[in-house]
Amino acid sequence: MLILLLLSSITYDQTQEVDLIELNTLYDGDDRVVFKQLIYYQWDWATNRYQCVDWRLMKHRGMIPVKRGQHYESMWIDGEQQRRVRSSYFRRSWSRDDPEIEERERMPKDRRRGLIKMLKPKPDETDQ
Fold first, then answer.
1. Chain-wide mean pLDDT for the chain?
2. In what order do the strands lie in the sheet with 81-95?
3. Can you give the pTM of this predicted structure?
4. Does residue 101 have a pLDDT over 80?
5. Which of 9, 30, 91, 126 lies in the 20 to 30 Å Cα band around 70?
6. Which of 113, 53, 119, 59 minimizes the C-alpha distance to 83?
7. Backbone conformation region of residue 7, classed left if phi is above 0, alpha if psi is from -120 to 50, else beta
8. What is the residue-wise DSSP string for 18-30?
9. What pLDDT, on the 0 to 100 scale, is given for residue 50?
């Protein structure tokens, strides 16, 4: 119920499309979960492989992508706004090496496209 109230107060929905969403669980050497992360990829025809666009730590189970029609959607509150990332493909992975860190060797973070920058909602004229 609280989530519905929270989502109903959000007025500016920003959706981004990617080619693949990966839910990665990273383990340490003692097989303990270090963290879970969502990694967002675009297909790169030049290198014939998925390139990491961006990533987010999974802070709650509500961020896990859900199948909606032909797509998977991951939604969460980013600041005061709802962010939604859609993809045709979703996979889970379990690793001891962080795949996002490994991707930095191929594409440094500062050269990645990244998820869209969140736009601030236009002020409601009735609020003035």
1. 83
2. 49-57, 33-44, 13-27, 81-95, 71-78, 66-68
3. 0.78
4. yes
5. 9
6. 119
7. alpha
8. EEEEEEEEEE-TT
9. 94
